C-alpha cells in the first residue's frame, strides 16, 4: 500500500456520509417503523373526523324535514334546529334574567319563595320609582301580546335566538308583581311561526331596594354573587340600576346584570342577550319622566338573521392536532440523541478522531445527515397529511409551514447535540428523551394551552414559557391549527403571510434565535469537553504551519530518582539529547510524561504514569509489559489524545501531543484495548471507512481493504461482508488490528492486540505486525511474554506507573535472569535430600517453588556448570527415586515476575 497524504475535508466528509448512509440502510426496518408513526397518527385523525362527520352530522345534524328540504323548525328537535334552513326566524319576546328560586336573596325573606330583588340608586329617585312602577304589570288584563309586559326567566341564555331555551324548556316564564296570589299562574299560547305551543307563566314577587350610592349597591351584589356550589348559601339579585346624574337634559345610567347565567361554551358576548330588556326598562323610565306614561319605546321581540341549512364543520385534526403533531415532530429527538450518545458511549467518535476525522467534518456532516433525515421525515408527514385532506396542512400556506418546520427540526437537532454532552449512557438518554417528548405534549395541551387561552394571564409569562423549546413548538402548531380551524369554519383560507403575526411571529423569532444560540453552545461545550480545548480557544491564533521545537539545556525537565535503573537513566538521557537536536528524528519521543488522577470519595490521588521518558525510532516495535493497573493504557490514552498529561509532553513525528493532536491523528493508527466497532457495519465497510479517512481512494482503497482482510483471515468464507455484530470476539479483535494498520500509519498503538485469539490466528497476527513495523513505529502492550519476545525489538517493564527496565529481550534476560532454573520431582520424604544436593552444586542456590514433592531452584550461572548438574542428578537417582527433573534457562516471564515482585 502506498503512503498517502492527510485526507482533505471533502474526503473526510465523504467517508463519514458513506458510513452513515450504510448504517441507515442496515436500520431500514427501524426507519420504516419510525416513519409509520406520523402516518398512523394522521390516519387516526382522519378516522376520527370521518366518524364524527358520519355519526354526529348524519344523526344529530339533520334538519328533521319530512317532505321538504327547507321546512323551518316544524319537524325539528332543538338539537337539530341549529342545522336547519330558517328563512323566517321566530320572534321571541325579550326577557329579564331572574335568579333560580334556590339562589334568590333570602334576607329578609327566609322562605324558598324569595322575591326577585332589584337595586336602585342615583341622584334622581323619581326615575327609580317610575322604573319600579313600570316593572309590575297586571296580567288580569292580559291582551295576548307578551311584548307589553315585563317578563323574565331563570333558564340559561340560548346559543342563538333561533330556538330560545326559555320557550322550549319546561321552566316557566315569570311575571313580576308586587304580591303573588295563590292562583296567579296561567298558561298562554306562544304563536311564533313556525312554532305554536302553550307556555306556563308564573308569578314572581319583585322587591325593589333603594341604596344611597353605587358603592353600596356594588357591595351588596358582590356579597350575594355566586361563589360556590349550589349547596352553599347564595344571595343572588336580579339586576341593579344607577341613574347617576340623570336629569331632563341628560340620560346617564349604569346597569348591572348577573353574568352567572351564561353558557360557558358560548363566546362571552352571547351572555348579553338578556340585557336589552334592562336597557329598555331604563329608557322607558326616562321617557315617562320626560313625557308621561303615555310615551314609551315598545320592545316587541328579538330575532336572528335568516340562515341556510348548515352542518357542524368541526375540524378534529385542528382541535387536537397540536398534541399529536407535537409528538410526531419530537419523536425525532430521541433518535438523534441516542445516536450521538451511542457513539459517545461506545467511544466510536474518539476512534474516528484517532484515525484522522476532524471536528469540522464530523459536526458539519453529522448535522447535515440528521437534517436530511429530519427533513425527509417532515416532508413525508406534511405530504401525507395533505393527501388525506387534513385542513391543518391544506388551508395554511405551505411556505409558512416549510419555514416553521425547518426551524423546528434545526432547533431540535441543536438541542440533541447540546443534550448529548450531558449523557454517557444510551438507556438513560432514551428514557429522558421520551419523557421530554410525551411530557411536552401533555403539558402543552393541559397547562400551556390553558394559560394561552386565558386573556387575563400575563403575556410576559407566556413569552417566558415559550423559551422552553417544547412550548414554543406547541405554540406554533396551536396557531396553525387555530388558523386552519377558523378558515374551515368560515370557508376561507388559513394562515397566510399577510396575517402572519402575533403568536406565530413571536415563536418563530424565539425558535430561530434559540437554534443559533444552542448550536453555538453545543459546539463550544463539545470543544472544551470532548476535544479538550482551552475555554478561550476561539481567541487563540491557530497556525497551520508545522511548529518547530527547540529546547535549551535549561528548558529540559529533569527528574532525579534515587533508585532509577541505569538502563532507564540512559533512555532518559537519550530523550534529552533528541530534544536538544530535533524531535523529528524519532517517531515517538516522550519527555517526562505524567498522569495523575484526582482522588474521589475521600481516596488519595492516583499516580498512573510517573515521569515516563522513552525514544522510539522509525521501524521499531516497542513492547510495554506490566501487571494490570500499571499505567500502560493510561500512557496510550495520553498518546492518542483521549486524556491530557498532567505534566510533561510527547512528540509524534515531531508534533506535540499538547498542541498538534489533530495533525497527529492523520499519521497514527490505533488498536484499542476494547473493540470499538459498529455492530451494524461489516468488516469490509469498517475498513473502507477508515481507509477513506487515511485518504485512500479508488483501486488503491479496494486493494488495501482486500489485503487487510486477507492478512487477518477475514477474507475467506464471506466473513469480511458479515455484520460485525455476528463476529466472535477473536474476529472483532483481528478487525481492530486491521483497522489500526490500514493506510500505512507512521505510528501504531496496539493495546493487547492478541487478546482472545486462538494460536493459529495469533501466529498470523504476528506476521502482520512484523510486516507493518518495517514502515512504522509500533507501541504494543501485552501480557503474553511469547508475543513480546517474537514481535518487540525492545521491551520496557512498567510497574506502578514507572518504567523499571528497558532493553532488548535478550539483554533483559541476561541482566535480570542470570540463573538457571532446576526442577526436581521426588516423593515428599526425600525433599530435604534434594535441597541438600542442590546446595552442593551452588551455595547460593535459592528455592523458588515447592509443592507435593516438586521443587524449583534458581542456580546462579556464574557458580553453576551444567555438567555438575547432570552428575548431581545421576548421583541422586542412585540414592532415591527421582520422578522427573529439568534444567532451563531464564525466560522473559521469569524476568517479568522478578521485576514485578521486587517492587510489590
Structure description:
Among the domains are: 81-291, no CATH class; 335-529, no CATH class; 817-903, ACT-like. Chain A, domain 2 (Alpha-Beta Plaits), CATH 3.30.70. The protein is built from 28 helices and 22 strands. The strands form four sheets. Strands 1, 2, 3, 4, 5, 6, 7 and 8 form an eight-stranded mixed β-sheet that branches. Helices cover 44% and strands 15% of the residues. Helix 8 (332-345) packs antiparallel against helix 13 (426-452), helix 13 (426-452) packs across helix 15 and helix 25 crosses helix 28 (892-903). The protein is an alpha/beta fold. It is found in: Membrane. Keywords: ATP-binding, Membrane, Nucleotide-binding, Transmembrane, Transmembrane helix. InterPro entries: AAA+_ATPase, ABC2_TM, ABC_transporter-like_ATP-bd, ABC_transporter-like_CS, ABCA, P-loop_NTPase. It comes from Eutrema salsugineum.
Summarize the structure.
By secondary structure, the chain is α/β, with parallel strands linked by helices. Among the domains are: 81-291, no CATH class; 335-529, no CATH class; 817-903, ACT-like. Chain A, domain 2 (Alpha-Beta Plaits, 2-Layer Sandwich), CATH 3.30.70. Helix content is 44%, strand content 15%.
Amino acid at each position: 500500500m502506498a503512503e498517502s497524504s492527510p485526507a482533505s475535508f471533502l474526503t473526510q466528509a465523504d467517508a463519514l456520509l458513506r458510513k452513515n448512509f450504510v448504517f441507515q440502510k442496515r436500520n431500514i426496518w427501524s426507519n420504516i417503523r419510525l416513519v409509520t408513526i406520523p402516518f398512523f397518527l394522521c390516519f387516526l385523525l382522519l378516522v376520527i373526523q370521518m366518524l364524527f362527520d358520519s355519526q354526529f352530522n348524519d344523526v344529530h345534524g339533520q334538519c328533521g324535514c319530512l317532505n321538504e328540504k327547507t321546512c323551518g323548525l316544524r319537524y325539528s328537535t332543538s338539537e337539530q334546529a341549529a342545522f336547519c334552513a330558517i328563512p323566517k326566524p321566530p320572534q321571541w319576546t325579550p326577557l329579564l334574567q331572574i335568579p333560580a328560586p334556590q339562589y334568590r336573596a333570602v334576607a329578609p325573606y327566609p322562605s324558598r319563595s324569595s322575591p326577585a330583588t332589584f337595586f336602585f340608586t342615583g341622584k334622581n329617585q323619581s326615575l327609580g320609582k317610575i322604573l319600579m312602577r313600570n316593572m309590575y304589570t297586571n296580567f288580569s288584563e292580559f291582551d295576548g301580546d307578551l311584548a307589553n309586559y315585563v317578563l323574565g326567566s331563570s333558564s340559561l341564555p340560548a346559543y342563538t335566538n333561533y330556538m330560545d331555551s326559555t320557550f322550549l324548556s319546561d321552566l316557566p316564564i315569570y311575571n313580576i308583581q308586587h304580591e303573588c296570589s295563590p292562583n296567579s299562574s296561567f298558561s298562554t299560547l306562544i304563536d311564533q311561526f313556525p312554532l305554536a305551543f302553550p307556555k306556563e307563566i308564573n308569578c314572581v314577587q319583585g322587591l325593589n331596594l333603594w341604596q344611597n350610592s353605587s358603592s353600596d349597591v356594588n357591595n351588596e351584589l358582590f356579597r350575594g354573587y355566586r361563589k360556590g356550589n349550589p349547596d352553599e348559601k347564595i344571595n343572588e339579585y336580579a339586576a341593579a340600576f344607577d341613574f347617576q346624574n340623570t336629569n331632563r337634559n341628560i340620560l346617564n345610567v349604569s346597569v348591572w346584570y348577573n353574568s352567572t347565567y351564561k353558557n360557558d361554551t358560548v363566546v362571552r358576548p352571547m351572555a348579553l342577550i338578556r340585557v336589552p330588556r334592562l336597557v329598555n326598562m331604563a329608557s322607558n323610565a326616562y321617557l315617562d319622566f320626560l313625557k308621561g306614561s303615555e310615551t314609551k319605546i315598545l320592545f316587541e321581540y328579538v330575532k336572528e338573521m335568516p340562515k341556510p341549512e348548515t352542518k357542524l364543520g368541526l375540524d378534529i385534526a385542528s382541535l387536537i392536532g397540536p398534541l399529536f403533531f407535537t409528538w410526531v415532530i419530537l419523536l425525532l429527538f430521541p433518535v438523534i440523541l441516542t445516536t450521538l450518545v451511542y457513539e459517545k458511549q461506545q467511544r466510536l467518535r474518539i476512534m474516528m478522531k484517532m484515525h484522522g476525522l476532524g471536528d469540522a467534518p464530523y459536526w458539519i456532516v453529522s448535522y447535515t445527515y440528521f437534517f436530511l433525515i429530519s427533513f425527509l421525515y417532515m416532508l413525508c408527514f406534511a405530504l401525507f397529511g395533505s393527501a388525506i385532506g387534513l385542513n391543518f396542512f391544506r388551508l395554511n400556506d405551505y411556505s409558512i409551514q416549510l419555514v416553521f418546520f425547518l426551524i423546528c427540526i434545526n432547533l431540535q437537532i441543536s438541542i440533541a447535540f447540546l443534550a448529548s454532552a450531558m449523557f454517557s449512557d444510551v438507556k438513560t438518554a432514551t428514557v429522558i428523551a421520551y419523557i421530554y417528548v410525551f411530557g411536552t405534549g401533555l403539558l402543552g395541551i393541559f397547562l400551556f394551552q390553558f394559560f394561552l387561552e386565558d386573556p387575563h394571564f400575563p403575556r410576559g409569562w407566556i413569552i417566558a414559557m415559550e423559551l422552553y423549546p417544547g412550548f414554543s413548538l406547541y405554540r406554533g402548531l396551536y396557531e396553525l391549527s387555530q388558523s386552519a380551524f377558523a378558515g374551515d369554519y368560515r370557508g376561507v383560507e388559513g394562515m397566510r403571510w399577510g396575517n402572519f403575526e402575533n403568536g406565530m411571529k413571536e415563536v418563530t423569532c424565539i425558535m430561530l434565535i434559540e437554534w443559533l444560540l444552542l448550536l453555538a453552545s453545543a459546539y463550544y461545550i463539545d470543544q472544551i469537553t470532548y476535544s479538550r480545548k482551552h475555554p478561550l480557544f476561539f481567541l487563540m491564533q491557530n497556525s497551520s504551519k508545522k511548529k518547530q521545537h527547540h529546547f535549551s539545556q535549561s528548558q529540559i525537565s529533569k527528574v532525579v530518582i534515587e533508585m532509577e535503573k541505569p538502563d532507564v537513566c540512559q533512555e532518559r538521557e537519550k530523550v534529552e539529547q533528541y530534544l536538544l537536536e530535533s524531535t523529528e528524528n524519532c517517531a515517538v519521543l516522550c519527555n517526562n510524561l505524567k498522569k495523575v488522577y484526582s482522588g474521589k470519595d475521600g481516596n488519595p490521588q492516583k499516580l498512573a504514569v510517573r515521569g515516563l521518558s522513552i525514544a522510539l525510532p522509525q521501524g521499531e516495535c516497542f513492547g510495554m509489559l506490566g501487571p494490570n493497573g500499571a499505567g500502560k493504557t493510561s500512557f496510550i490514552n495520553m498518546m492518542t489524545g483521549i486524556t491530557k498529561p498532567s505534566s510533561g509532553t510527547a512528540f509524534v513525528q515531531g508534533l506535540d501531543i499538547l498542541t498538534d493532536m489533530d495533525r497527529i491523528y492523520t499519521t497514527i493508527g490505533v488498536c484499542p484495548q476494547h473493540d470499538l466497532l459498529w455492530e451494524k457495519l461489516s468488516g469490509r465497510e469498517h475498513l473502507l471507512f477508515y481507509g477513506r479517512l487515511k485518504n485512500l481512494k479508488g483501486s488503491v482503497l479496494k486493494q488495501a481493504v482486500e489485503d487487510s482482510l486477507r492478512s487477518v483471515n477475514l477474507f475467506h468464507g464471506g466473513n469480511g461482508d458479515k455484520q460485525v455484530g455476528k463476529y466472535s470476539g477473536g474476529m472483532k479483535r483481528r478487525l481492530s488490528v486491521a483497522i489500526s494498520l490500514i493506510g500505512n500509519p507512521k505510528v501504531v498503538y496496539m493495546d493487547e492486540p492478541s487478546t482472545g485469539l486462538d494460536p493459529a490466528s495469533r501466529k498470523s497476527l504476528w506476521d502482520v505486525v512484523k510486516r507493518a513495523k518495517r514502515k512504522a513505529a509500533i507501541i504494543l502492550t501485552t501480557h503474553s511474554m511469547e508475543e513480546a519476545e517474537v514481535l518487540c525489538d525492545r521491551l520496557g517493564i512498567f510497574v506502578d506507573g514507572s518504567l523499571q527496565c528497558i532493553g532488548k529481550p535478550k539483554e533483559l534476560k541476561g541482566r535480570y535472569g542470570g540463573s538457571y532454573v532446576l526442577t526436581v520431582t521426588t516423593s515428599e520424604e526425600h525433599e530435604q535430600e534434594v535441597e541438600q544436593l542442590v546446595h552442593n552444586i551452588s551455595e547460593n542456590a535459592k528455592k523458588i517453588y515447592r509443592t507435593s514433592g516438586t521443587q524449583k531452584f534458581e542456580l546462579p550461572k556464574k557458580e553453576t556448570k551444567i555438567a555438575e548438574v547432570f552428575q548431581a542428578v545421576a548421583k541422586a537417582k542412585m540414592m532415591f527415586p527421582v520422578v522427573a527433573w529439568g534444567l532451563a534457562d531464564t525466560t522473559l516471564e521469569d524476568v517479568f515476575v522478578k521485576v514485578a515482585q521486587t517492587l510489590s
